[in-house]
Design brief:
Elements: H1 3-14, H2 16-22, H3 28-35, H4 39-67, H5 69-88, H6 93-121, H7 124-138, H8 140-155, H9 159-180, H10 196-205, H11 208-238, H12 243-267, H13 273-297, H14 301-313, H15 315-326, H16 334-359, H17 365-383
Helix pairs in contact: 1-7, 1-9, 2-8, 3-4, 4-5, 4-6, 4-10, 4-16, 5-6, 5-9, 6-16, 7-12, 7-15, 11-12, 11-14, 11-15, 11-16, 11-17, 12-14, 12-15, 13-14, 13-15, 13-17, 16-17
Pfam family, one: MFS_1
Keywords: Cell inner membrane, Cell membrane, Membrane, Transmembrane, Transmembrane helix, Transport
Membrane topology: Multi-pass membrane protein
């Protein structure tokens, strides 16, 4: 299958995450009023979904290795669709939270299947280019999700948003069955004892290069997560910008990521993906230093925002290159490696983001300090990465460049 068609289909699958997270944000006041709770209580449904999304990948990944990509992905879409339907009928906060947790399980099974499918079909530079294309397609979802939610609220009440998610998941399942799985080479599951669903993680955990790249992804992603957590406070309260100004600056981050993503595709024709990754992680760290200096000196908002956009934009090239390198050594355990990557990414980034929320709720410097912690950690790991990543086998054999 041509890369563009594969990227569009897999990008549509990954888009489930941003749609489930962002589309219902404009409906928080309506949901709170309907359930008789505060908006902060409704916000717990966001945390419940994200937490489950990370943890459930640790289960879905090994299952996809043992039972096949198609079965796990279709199961995930089924659970996602049914739970979204039940969320739309929720009459209490407990029902809302409970079904959002179930929805997170379905979303996790979908999310973990995409990198595994990419690893089944490609490796090395080819995989990095494919991940880049998927990322480019996926950038559309977080950009349009809040506007889509607002549009649906003008047609009906908040439940319509989750009915839309139900319909999207059903349509996606039909599309993937007709256009993706019929054309892909069949992935042969590994028929090993059920106990290997757990022990396979040990193979990934003791592979030094893979764990290095997992660490880079988690720490770099935490930089963006800390910013997203505090973006409204930073721009609207600290710098006093309007909602329109805040939205424009937030959209600029997405545009920067898309630009770096396109540039990365061109660079992959001339340079090794691991070298591009190392360079972008260092650039992100330098941009965060700029953010810290701007915050310390009380620089105008546009100086601060410029450095933030540069740092977040780097993720457009960091993520595809890092994912390709992290999964390179596990052609038959791509689901397990992908699950550990996703689970670690959400857990560490979520923890750093939560710490930043507890120590920097009313001032700027601690927030920027937590962004710096993640960026410096990622830089240390990236600088020590090998000059090139060679295709390996799923065993902890000595690898050139390993620590």
């Amino acid at each position: 299958m041509p890369h563009l068609q594969l990227a569009i289909l897999l990008g549509m699958t990954v888009a489930l995450g941003p749609l489930a997270l962002d589309a219902y944000l404009p409906a928080f006041p309506d949901i709170a009023a309907a359930l008789g709770v505060t908006q902060a209580d409704v916000g717990l449904s966001l945390s419940a979904y994200v937490s489950t999304l990370g943890l459930a990948q640790l289960v879905g990944g090994p299952l996809s290795d043992r039972y096949g990509r198609r079965g796990v992905l279709m199961a995930g879409l089924t659970v996602f669709a049914l739970s979204a339907l039940m969320v739309s009928q929720a009459g209490t906060l407990a029902e809302l939270l409970g079904w959002r947790i179930v929805q997170g399980i379905g979303g996790a099974f979908c999310a973990v299947s995409v990198p595994a499918i990419v690893r089944d079909q490609s490796h090395g530079q080819d995989a990095a280019r494919l991940f880049g294309l998927i990322g480019l397609v996926m950038f559309v979802a977080p950009a349009v999700a809040p506007s889509l939610g607002t549009l649906l609220l003008t047609i009906g009440d908040w439940s319509l948003i989750f009915l839309f998610l139900t319909g999207y998941a059903v349509l996606l399942a039909i599309t993937l069955n007709l256009l993706l799985f019929r054309r892909l080479p069949k992935h042969e599951p590994i028929r090993t004892p059920v106990a290997t669903l757990v022990t396979n993680y040990w193979q990934v955990l003791r592979h030094p290069l893979t764990m290095r790249f997992i660490g880079i992804q988690a720490l770099s992603f935490s930089v963006m997560m800390v910013f997203i957590t505090h973006a409204s406070f930073i721009y609207q309260e600290w710098f006093g910008l309007t909602k329109t100004g805040f939205s424009a600056l937030f959209a600029s981050n997405v545009a920067a990521m898309a630009t770096l993503n396109l540039l990365n595709r061109a660079l992959l024709k001339r340079f090794e993906s691991v070298d591009i990754l190392r360079t972008l992680v260092v650039i992100q760290c330098l941009a965060i230093f700029g953010v810290m200096i701007a915050a310390s000196l009380g620089a105008p908002w546009y100086v601060f925002a410029g450095f933030v956009i540069a740092s977040v934009g780097c993720m457009g090239a960091i993520i595809p290159n890092n994912m390709a390198n992290a999964l390179e050594y596990f052609p038959h355990l791509g689901g397990t490696a992908s699950a550990l990557l996703g689970g670690t990414q959400f857990t560490i980034a979520g923890a750093i983001s939560a710490i930043s929320a507890s120590i920097g709720a009313h001032t700027l410097t601690p927030i920027v300090g937590m962004m710096m912690v993640g960026s410096v950690g990622a830089t240390v790991l990236a600088v020590g990465a090998p000059r090139a990543v060679r295709r390996g086998r799923e065993q902890p054999a000595r690898t050139e460049g390993a620590i």
